[in-house]
Every structure is written in structure tokens, then in C-alpha cells.
């Protein structure tokens, strides 16, 4: 048995560095409280002393480089992403790398990234010191490198996505894709589509108090959809928008596509989305968002899919009475909603053709939110971290906007949709959220919509045909894209026919739908691809079993 010997002073630093890094990693990957990292670090230091790691009696110096340097860096990247966003989505990473991350609002995360980099340098130096000075660590270290590689979720995810290129059956989802098709109607309604950043319906749970109460009040006057879940590739802002406006997950073009060294010049050009459909019907379409339209391809998406006007930070900030009233991401929501009212006033004053306005807020953005000044005046001082404060702010401002527009008569013959763009990422209530069945917000208001609650096992892809249906443009078979109208009981959603695991596994083994989205930019797989069908494939016993 090794004896418990006091290490010389030079070993305390590497042991403590390893212990703190290990403790922090475990707290990020589990639900342990942050202070437990010190307990875990102390346990590791105790083990290190017991085993004499780095002790002078095991000193056999050799100038060698550790095998684990790259695996440690990859784990550092994964932990940073997990700490920032909760659930790491490689699709989001790939898409943002190609669509652009200019003018992002993650100033706070940049500081965190710098701290991570500094800590990783400490880990790399520690690993190098132990490899060169402790012969036992030098023998064990190659095995450690292998363990770090095979256990890293980044490596597992990259392996899954690489398999897409060579999969034998990569058209399971594409066979179920329905080209959206609508016909003109008399007196078409306007559309106001409000995306509330990260304000998921889960916040309606009693454990969160009254944070969601204003949206509950709005929902009492319309149709509230319960059970709208989040499948893979729909869990970040652009992915949630494309799922709910195009009826398909956002499957990134990928780092292997034919233009991998160039930024994207268009976003999902191969499919028709809500803007394309409404533009063909004569709608005048506007998008307003407080953040930059240069970030994550938002401007590319809306300009390429039928929108006449696209307003973001660059165009709206000069119009502010106080140009300094902005946050890291852009405009506060009270300013954004004031511009939204003005835009709807402009559209109403022009002519009798229908209009559509899409809006994206910022208040609920992780990790802390960005509550507006109007909310602070109403709710009192904000501690800078409580996400429920920001949720309440976002919900109240959305309700206030609807009531303001109603008072002006601008919502006559108008369908109003209030949707969360995706589930919340890591926030102050993350541990509580993760214990609950999570679902997105989806509320519809309209002259012909009777107030009720509809509970379906659905996804954000079902929002697209449901919006068309609510506006009177019922697609064939009540289907569009991969979704079906939730207003039609006889139409089954993908999640009602298949479980979440099946859908997600197909998303990671699909290439035909990816090629459809990007018009051949994605890499070609092996084998013949099934031609796209204009209608969804009927489910067969074989499909149910797969």
C-alpha cells in the first residue's frame, strides 16, 4: 500500500489545478451545486497525496509531450459549450460557423471564454509537467488520452454526423416531406408572429410562480397548444424559426459542403417557407428584431424568403431617442415593440393588401436575460441574474403589445401567434427546468379561433402548417413540410407516429432532406437517393418498426 507522504511544494500546484478542473467538470456535467467543486478538488488532492503523484521519489525526467493535449482541449471546448448553453448541439455550432457570428451579443461569454482559455493553459502546463517529471504518470498518460477521446460527446457527435455522408438510407425524413401548397382566398387575414426568446411554456409550472402569468392570461382568449416539444436541430433561434416557418429541422450544410471555405450566401434556399407562401398571395412582409440581422444568417433567411423589409440593430438603433439604450445583443424589447407598432401603422396606412409582421425579442436570452426599463419600473430592481424576472418581463411586454394594437384596431382580421423560438438554454433556473417535461410556447389569437386548449405530442415543425390553417390556407392533407396542422385531430404528427428517439436518430442519419434544404450544397452520400415525393409517405408496419 502506498504511504501517505506530504508532497514537496512543487507538487501542490499541479495537484490543485487538476483537482479544481476535475471538480468543475463534474459540476458542469451534473446537477451538483457549484460549491461542490471544492469538495471534489479536495478529494482529488487527497488521492494525489496518497498516491504520491508528482512526488520527487517518482521523478524520472524526460522531455516528452503528453498525448492528452488535444483530448484535453476538446474537453475544454465541450465544457465551455455545456456551461454556456446546457445541452450542446453540434448542429448549432456548424450552422453558426457558416452563417456568421458577426455582431453577436455574447460579450459576457467572451469574458468566460477568456477565463476558460486561461484555465486550459494551466491544465496543459500541468499535464506536460507531470508527463515529464513523474514516470508513472508518463506511462498512464497515453491511456488517459484514449479515455478522454472516446468519452468526449463532441467526438461522438462528430462521428454521428460523419456517418451521414455514407449512410445507406438517408431519405427517411425526406420521404415524409410535403411541399406546402395553398390557394388564394377572399379577405385574407393579416399575421403578427411574435417570437419570445427562450420563453418556453415550461415556465407556466407552479414552481416558477407568476413569471408566465401574462401569457396565461393572453392564452385564455385564444388557442393554447400544449405538448410542443423540441426535437434535434430545432433548439436554437434560427433552427426554431426555420422549423416553425418552414416545417423542417435546420440541418446545417455542414463543414464538408462544396463551399466550406466561404460563408453562406443563402439560408435553406431549396424549400418554400411561410414568407414565400404569403408573398405569393400578395402579402407585404416585415421582420423586426432587436439583434443584428448579420448574426446567424437572419437577414439572409428573411431576404431570401419573401420579406420586403428586414429591420435589425443596424437599422433600428439610429431611430432610438436614446442611442445608448441598448444591451449586448441590441435593442431592448420595449423599444422593439414601439417600432413594431409603428411598422404596423405604416402597413395599415398604405393599402388594403394583407400584411405580415414577424418579431423576435431579446428579454429572455440566456444566461441572465435583458429586461427592459419599462419592466424595471413595473417590477422593481433586478439582481442581474434571476431569469424569472426576465421571463415575467417578456410575457408582460408581449401582452401589453397585443392590447395596444387591439386598442388601435390594428388586429381586426389578424391572426396573432406567440411562440418561443426554442427551449431555454442554461439559466439560473436550469436545474429546475431539467426536472420538468419541457415544451415550447405556442398561442394563437384570431377572430375565427375559439378559445380552447389543445394537447398534442407535437414539435415546432407543426407550427408551420398550423399557422397556415389558422389563416384559412389549409394545406393538402393538413400537412406542410414535416408538420401537420394541430387544429386537425385526424392528422397525426411525426411525434404521434414515432417516439422522440426515433425522430432524433433519423435526423442524425439523414442526407436527402439536407440536400433538399441546401439545393445540393451538402455532400452526396453513397448509394442511390430516393427521389423527393410531393406527398408524405403513408406509414407502414415496416416504418413503425424502424
TrEMBL record:
InterPro entries membership: Alkaline_phosphatase_core_sf, OpgB/LTA_synthase_biosynth, Sulfatase_N
Transmembrane segments: 35-53, 65-81, 110-130, 142-159
Composition-biased stretches (Low complexity): 535-546
Listed Gene3D superfamilies: Alkaline Phosphatase, subunit A (3.40.720.10)
Topology relative to the membrane: Multi-pass membrane protein
Keywords noted in UniProt: Cell membrane, Membrane, Transmembrane, Transmembrane helix
Chain ranges of the Sulfatase N-terminal domain: 270-473
Cellular compartments annotated: Cell membrane
Span list, region Disordered: 522-546
Top-level taxon of the source organism: Bacteria
Protein name stated in the entry: Sulfatase-like hydrolase/transferase
